[in-house]
Amino acid sequence: MTGTEIYNIKLAAALEVKVEFNMQELDSFEDNFFYDSYIRVKNTYYTPAGTCRKCHNLQQSANNNGFANHLRHLLTKQNIVTNVLPETGARKTKEMKIKKTLDEHDIKYVNDNRVLDRDSNCDKSANRPDFQVQYTHQELVTIYVEVDENQHKTYTSTCELVRLNDIAISSQFRRPLVVIRYNPDTFTVGDKRITCKELSSKHKEDIFMRQLKHVMVAAAHPESFPPFLRVVKIGFDCNCMSTTECGFVHTIDYPDQESLRLAYTLMR
User: Fold this and answer.
1) What's the pTM?
2) At 173, which helix (H) or strand (E)?
3) How do strand 131-134 and strand 108-111 relate by DSSP bridges?
């Protein structure tokens, strides 16, 4: 058998029951298989018919990095020094737009860094929220801002819940956590598509700032927040009958991990 053999007890046990899996089931096997990999279960060898999106991207990235490293090596031999360029592209541009908005309103923050005040012994401590807001009552309520381009539709909803759970865990549940998820792109309210014509970027950013400032002020009374997690979603798909019903904002409270686990189960 050629290729890379993988060792995954959970996958091996599942293969004794069936050989076809949906994307959520594949994700639960921790995404450690590629096109040329195989797994042996007793005397039978199994290879993937395809690969999950995350694995494909990781493999593509690895291939690209391998080429880049080879090119860098050749250039170095010719005494040509190369420098890594900063991250660019549409994703970073939209994140930087929110950064500019925060700066204009004199909101202090930490951008794209590991969770502050985290438990470094926790394996979830490497999580990096887009923005960690620093303000007067930050010792009472933690506020993160996530810029979710296109509502992060390339990720499953369950993956988003897992990420939120991991971020909460990394702070050791010291205080309530509020995550403001801001979608800078198109979305729908009921059957109405909301583009920049119906809701300008400036208007949407104003809504974002109102919500952020409201949370910052309300944090003086942490008992008004769920003890575990509150998610404020701005500019996400919803089933509201009209735009005036929700004002493009939806809040979801998770009082504890069990409520988050239940939401995860219902989405699967």
Assistant:
1) 0.63
2) none
3) antiparallel
Total residue count of the chain as it appears in this document: 268
Q: Return the domain boundaries, the chain.
A: 1-84, 90-267
- In which element (H, E) is residue 14 found? helix 9-15
The tokens describing 76, both together, are 């170095």
> Which stretches within 105-250 are classed as H helix?
157-170, 201-218, 243-246
Q: What is the pLDDT of residues 154-210, one digit of tens each?
A: 665 667 777 777 777 766 667 899 999 999 999 999 999 999 899 999 999 999 999
Measured CA to CA in angstroms, residue 17 lies from 1, 10, 14, 186 at distances of 23, 11, 5, 42
- CA–CA separation, 183 vs 16, rounded Å? 42
**Cα–Cα distance, 157 to 163 (Å, whole number):** 10
- Determine the Cα–Cα distance for residues 46 and 19; give it in Å rounded to an integer: 9
User: Chain-centre distance of CA 265, in angstroms?
Assistant: 18
Q: Where are the beta strands (DSSP E) in the chain?
A: 4-5, 37-41, 44-46, 108-111, 131-134, 142-147, 177-182, 187-189, 192-194, 229-234, 249-254
